[in-house]
Every structure is written in structure tokens, then in C-alpha cells.
């Protein structure tokens, strides 16, 4: 290298080092290191600082990532309702989204509740048992009983699996499930797609054996204190109107804390005709007799599951009155109001597309007024009895739940709102119920049927 070029190189190096020291000086962090000429400080300190800042940086990034991870895993976080649920809707058809939701829950991939304490004022006295809270998951979400425990872990006190048909059947051709997001509603015409009694029974048996060894003193088939497992029975499309339900009682009675006779799906031809007084009385009497003949629940041979009937919201007052008469005559334990509706309250709905006219049952927000009206009528004809009324249809908040309770529901169930609002819904509904009850200075049981007064 010539002496001239080595001079140029030194000058460049010098100016670079001055620029670096100036830039550090302006950053206000370490000017002294570079402005004093001590070799020790200039050689060792920068490495230390770089190391320290790298360490702090990585720590901050890790804590941040952990925080974001925990936030995303928290079922209550807003990101579930406003980011993940809409993304799932964008990425999947309604049916695939439903299947994916079940798989996520089943395999422990869904968000979870980090704390779930039920205030005592939420306690429900029903069927001689206690429920920790009045919020249940309605039938149709977990048709095959694959996600019972994950659903209960999300804060629900009751889960109704099914409807289950005796023989496997595919249900109606696809597409058969449609979203109406502007109305927080869906229309479905699944038509009792079911893997059949044997398949669901084997799922329940595996669960029962697994949980029994861990909880030998459990008192409910849900294996949780204050929580109940209900099993909803349907009939095959070409099945027998009575036999199919009788088989359901025989097969599932031992595994159920509650049995539900579903005669109100709009998607099985002729099913809703079973709601006529004569047919219903005959069916329910047979079912109750069969229940009474059961050896007892597996978890407690001294108990036999209460029987509920689930009815449609599209009934006239006369029809509701005759169902009440049938329910009392057959001595069943309760009535669920309601299943999905075949009505389309389009004037109150935002969705204007043709989806509204899809055949099937409408559920979610637009159903609420219809099923609430049905519940009030049902209460009118059952308040002189011990029949437990269960409210269902368009419930998406604590205020909705309270309206149903005041109209006569001992507890409530929901499904469609869960699909729109995400896995934290039960917890949020319960929080809202507690705050409303505290404002009124009442417990849940004190408001049940309080509209009567
Ligand atoms: C996709 C879907 C499938 C359903 N399947 C069943 C069923 O198999 N058996 C039943 O009794 N109800 C079924 N239902 C009705 C619900 O249990 C519930 O009664 C109805 O959706 C009203 O409640 P919601 O507005 O909170 O969804 C289904 C509902 C939906 C949306």
C-alpha cells in the first residue's frame, strides 16, 4: 500500500470513529466512553452494553410474546370475538367452521378461561340438584359428545349433547348451514346428522371410565359438582315415532344427568307433528315409563334422569296449552322453549340477501323475541305445576338471560351467540348476570318467574 493511500485510509477511519462517537453522544447514552480516550473503556464497555441491551431486548420481547400469547389464549379476550371469530368465518364455510370449533375444543387447542369462579347468587336449584350457574350450552353444538369437558371448562354449567339418532344417518345434503352475520344469526337444515347411538355410546363409555378412576366419588354424570350432562334424543328420518326415543332412554339413561326428547327440529319431516296433544302424551308417557324402568344412573344407581321435552317456538297459544297438558299428564320434569324457528322476522332483520330464504331453522338474535313470547305463554299454562322451564333462543347476554328467567326459565341455554362471540361468552354472560342481580339485590332463584307478580 502506498504511503498516500495509507494516509487516506487513516483519515477515513478517524472520521468514521468521530461520526460514531458523535452519534452515540447524540443518542445520549454513552458519550463519555468514546470522548475520553482510555483504551479500557473504548474496548470493553461497548460490548458489555451491546450484550446488556441485547439481553434486555430479548427479555422484553419474550415477556411481550408471552403476554400476547396468554392474551390470545384467554377465552375472555376481545381478540376472540373481534379477530379470531371473524377470521374463522372468512376462512371456512359455516359447517366447516363448526367442525373446526369442535376439533379445537376436543384436542385442547381452543382458548381457555384462566379463572372461573361462580358467584353464589348464580346458584340454581333444579331437579333436586344444584347448578353452579344458570348458563348452558344448547343441543346441536356438540352432537357427538366429543367436547363435553372442554365446553364445561368454558364456564357452562350444563351441556346438552345430541341430537342423537338410533342409527347413523348423514342428514340433509350440503350446503345445510348458513351464516347471517349482520343479524348474529344462522339458518340450519342439518336434518339430524348423527353417528348413531353405538358410536356416541362408545365415546361416552371411554369418558366415563377415564373420569371414574380419577373421581370415584363423583355424583353427576358430568363428573363436576354443580354441572349437568344432558343427552338430547332424536329419531331417524325413517325411524319409529316411539321406538326411537325408547331406545334412546334405554341406551343413554345411565350416562345422562338429564334426558331431552326433541320433537321440534324443523328439519326432520313430520317430527313437529309429535307435538300434538295426543301423540305427545303417548310418547312422553312411554318415555317416562322407560326412564322409571332404568336400573339407575351409572354414577348413582339411586338416581334416574329427569326427562325434558324440547318444543318449537312456532306454536300457537292453543298448541302450547295442549303441550302443557301432555307434559303434566305424562309427569315429565320440564320443557325447553325453544328450538329454531321456521319464521323469518325479516322486517326486524338486517340481512337482505337470499340467504334469509334458505329452508331450515333460524336461530340467534332474531329468534329471541319469538322464543321469549313462547316461554311467557308456556309459563301461563305451567305455573300451577312443578314443571321446570328452560329458556333458549337468541340469548347472547346476561340481560337476555335475566329476561328469560323473569319470564319463568329456571336456567337458560345458548348456541348461536357462542359462534359469533367466541369461547368467553358464558363467562361474560355470567359476569353480566351477577352485576344485574347485585343492582337488584336479588339472587338468580329469586328472579325466576318474577314477571308473574
Ligand atoms: C347448527 C345448529 C344445529 C342444531 N342442532 C340441534 C339438534 O340436533 N337438536 C336440538 O334439539 N336442537 C338443535 N339446535 C337448536 C339449538 O339447540 C337451539 O335450540 C337453537 O339454536 C336456539 O338457540 P340459539 O339461538 O342460542 O342458538 C341446533 C341449532 C343450530 C344452530
TrEMBL record:
Binds 1 FMN per subunit. Pathway: Pyrimidine metabolism; UMP biosynthesis via de novo pathway; orotate from (S)-dihydroorotate (quinone route): step 1/1. Gene3D superfamilies: Aldolase class I (3.20.20.70). Its EC number is 1.3.5.2. It catalyses: (S)-dihydroorotate + a quinone = orotate + a quinol. InterPro entries: Aldolase_TIM, DHO_dehydrogenase, Dihydroorotate_DH_2, Dihydroorotate_DH_cat, Dihydroorotate_DH_CS. Keywords: Flavoprotein, FMN, Membrane, Mitochondrion, Mitochondrion inner membrane, Oxidoreductase, Pyrimidine biosynthesis, Transit peptide, Transmembrane, Transmembrane helix. It is a single-pass membrane protein. It is found in: Mitochondrion inner membrane. GO terms for cellular component: mitochondrial inner membrane. Pfam families: DHO_dh (PF01180). It comes from the Eukaryota. Its cofactor is FMN. The chain crosses the membrane at residues 49-71. GO terms for biological process: 'de novo' pyrimidine nucleobase biosynthetic process; pyrimidine ribonucleotide biosynthetic process. Residues 122-437 form the Dihydroorotate dehydrogenase catalytic domain. GO terms for molecular function: dihydroorotate dehydrogenase (quinone) activity. Belongs to the dihydroorotate dehydrogenase family. Type 2 subfamily. NCBIfam families: PRK05286.1-2, PRK05286.2-5, pyrD_sub2. This is Dihydroorotate dehydrogenase (quinone), mitochondrial. It comes from Candida boidinii.
